[in-house]
Amino acid sequence: MTEPLLSVRNLSVEFTTYGRTNAVLHGVTLAVPERSQVALVGESGSGKTVTMKAIMGLLREPPARVTAGEILFDGRDLLRASRAERDRLRGTAMAMIFQDPMSSLNPVFTVADQMGTILKYADRRLGRQRGRAGRRARVHEVLAQVRMRDPERVAASYPIMLSGGMKQRVLIAMALLSQPRLLIADEPGTALDVTTQAQILKLLKDLVEEQHLALLMITHNLGVVRETSHYVHVMHRGRIVEAAEAQALFAAPREDYTRNLIASVPRLTGGTSFATLARTDDET
Amino acid sequence: MEFLLFLLRRVLWSLLVLVGLSVVIFLIARAVPGDPARMALGPTATQEQVTDLRHKLGLDRPLITQYGLFVAALSHGDLGRSLLTERAVTDDIRESFAATLELVLATIFLALAAGLPLGIAAARWKDRWPDTASRLVAILGAVTPTFFLALLLQLLAGYVLHVLPTTGRLDPADPFHADITGLITLDSLLEGRFAVTLDALRHLLLPATALAAATMGQMARLTRASMLEVMSQDYIEAARAFGIPDWLRVLKYTLRPSFVAPLTILGLEFASMIGNAFVVELVFSWPGMAAYGIRTILQKDLNAVMGVVMVSGAFFVGVNLVIDLLVGLVDPRIRIRGARA
Amino acid sequence: MSEPPRLSAGYLRWYRFSRNPTAVIGAAIVLICIAATILAPWITPFPNAVKAVVDFRSRHLPPSALHWFGTDDVGRDILTRVIFGYRVSLLLVVVVLGTAVPFGAILGMLAGYYGGWVEIAIMRTTDIALAIPPLVMALAVAAVLSPSLFHSMLAIAILWWTWHARLVYSLARQLRTQEYIEAARMVGAGPLHILFRELLPNCLPPIVVKCSLDAGFVILVGASLSFLGLGIRPPTPDLGTMVATGAAYLPEKWWESVLPGCAILFVALGFNLLGDGLRDVFDVQEVR
Known about the structure:
Chain B has 341 residues and is an all-alpha fold. Helices cover 77% and strands 0% of the residues of chain B. Chain B has helices spanning 2-30, 36-41, 47-57, 63-75, 89-124, 129-143, 146-160, 184-190, 194-231, 234-241, 246-258, 260-283, 289-298, 302-330, 332-340.
């Protein structure tokens, strides 16, 4: 097998607050191969959000500090890359989907305005030329890709005019704007009701497959993992405690922690899966 | 579309406040202990004269009829006659109002032009010297009596530094009649007499600074608090993850949502600004409503005083309407909710 | 950050207060002013200066060891008059806030707790009252009834309640859905009990903070009124009047207006710092 698209090796991070230093990641290692769907599972506070922020280059330093490890993206170590290079990758080659659609869109600008701005600066970083009309067309195109029935109307809307599910889809569309190779999804849909969440997950899975993206799904919900991922990393107290193929993990978890985590997932009745619940084309 | 609805609601509400205001003013005017007619005519008038005037003023009618007459006159812009100048109160006020308006507009401009950047700097460099400076300006602005600050500025600029004029709107040697809008700065610009504009601005600077001080500090603190709150929102972090450059995140994504709170408070603060304008006008011999108001109060010229109060209240309502619309323009949430509610 | 449980809430507040320089300085200034007011007849160097005395030999004397703040246009000691002037200022604060705050708080509480037409009636009235500038209202009242301190107080109080009504209204509206209110209702507590024993105590910290900040503003409005000649009648010493009279002799006899002006600033600063500090001590955000 060739080099994975993203490879985190032995990453350690500590936080200093109120004069006290706490290590939150202890040598985290994980890999996301090209076109794969990988999950990072753990309870709140296990360090999965810090891992994600470190990958995206969103950690605030201070209070955070990376003490060891490397983050290889496409063979380059991001921790040793120049700031300009990191900025160039963020939001373009690697993009992120935020978990709370209600608060992740700026309330005072239209969807078209926000998406257009993202695209404009992504183009600029990549040295691409695309006019205003070109950007408009691309925004509508991506909105259609996330199964919006009326992309023009959605583009002209302010976030307050959209439902939670639609806002989440706008956030996905924002991540897809510059055709990223890696998509990092932070518990997408947790802020939504169960049915809508299922639709969002189905949509995400379809999009990842259609567009041949690699997906790193960050979640505390093993039910989500079962539906969306090929490979799973289980995280606990800043360490990866188990990593395995999804099927193998669910069939025969090696660690007690994983077993407990699996046991705590409420099962949907009669083998109904998210996929059958999901109807992605309706106006949620 | 939803903006029109929002606009309509705000305008209707403003009208309602104006009606309420007219009731309050009417009641105060009628709460006079003793007989307004007797007071107007003085102790030497005969009972017959008093009865005659009472009839002429409609004071012998029921209260509700009197209010009806009051409002009917008001809707024609008729605030009655001034006993002091024996002219229509509306005419008296119209001239002085333009001067007050010019002063107040300059003050608002100054308060925003200085207060917002100071607040932005304070938020950007939190707990560093710009933050301390904004705090100092806010506290000093809040605790210095406006008339005292006006006197100090006058003293400093007029007697010590000799740099700025300390009284009036224009140099008397430079006659100019502002008869387009009544605002000297604007009218002289329109007529192309830039020397007059400059002179008017020089005259405006001190009174407007004195009047703006309190509001300026408050705007800075509110902008700071508001920006810090917006900066902690998810959408600012999300913009970072989507690769929006830092300067744009501050200048566009943070700033615009941050203006809502300071603007709203500016509207409420405007009432005390009008009050303080009276004091500042007095100190700088500014030919605005204050001089007229105070002269008529001491003469118990009831119609004139009520006219001044009504115009001040209407001014407040008008400015708040404009601010509401601005806030609605800045923040779609407010106009969409405002249109629906 | 957890505190040992044996410390009482009162002690914790005192601790936070005493560690807050703003609050301590503010409280010190306020206490000094109050003490000076009470002790005025005994601590002032020339208690006679409060009366309409004239001493032409000592007119317009600059600040000196004898007259720390100098003397005014009829030869009275300015420091003495400033200290007595605080009496008027503080009286104004007590009367205005003493009437306006309970009134506004109760109205705001009713509007916030009951909602519906009660809310509409009260809050719309508040909005109308807010449209009248307090100083202009005081002018109107002064015109209708004659200019005097009492009438000025009346005019200010008539409008001041609106701010407290707005504040308590927004607090009560948030609190009314709290579970302890629901619980009180569930066990059959009457509306009076809920309003005054459950709601009011929880609104008190913001009210106290606002009162302290307000006190400064009331003093400023009062001083502005007397500066315009609509306050207390001479010869009773009043700070605003002193600034106005002294202004006629600017800039040569600067002390006659500048020092009383600084005195107003001093007491207003005290109340403001105290309010700012109390806001941190009580940790309330709502009050501006």
